[in-house]
Amino acid sequence: MKKKLIMPELYTATHWMNRKVARESLIGAPTLIHFWSVSCPKCKQALPVIQSIRDQYSDQLHVVAIHMPLSNDDLNVQKVARAAEYYAITEPILIDNTHRLADSFGTRFVPAYFLFDPYGHLLEYHMGERGALRIEKAVNRLFFQNH
Fold it and tell me: Could you tell me the pTM of the whole model?
């Protein structure tokens, strides 16, 4: 992962859920992009934190989910759709069945969280079990709020 990462293009997603987004549509406001997988328990445990961020800053922050499969079983788009509905993932979901998005972000890990400034420059990156809490603090700092 490069510290000077510019938000990669998103068109390499193999499928889209909820609504389609392009990098250009995200410029102008900060953006949180989170990688998750249906077979990742830590991802599912972190979703309430991400949803809280999404809901709290809905008018100031773009949130995008990228599903990165960890196994052949995770390639099933219907399985991802069921999980997204069950876990109330209402933000745009990009499905990365070819790992091209993961490669462009320089990650192979889930959960992973990327916070970009309004111009598409990476502000912070966190991964793993505590990544959601760390990115939540970064988002709160970005909007000058203490929680």
Answer: 0.94
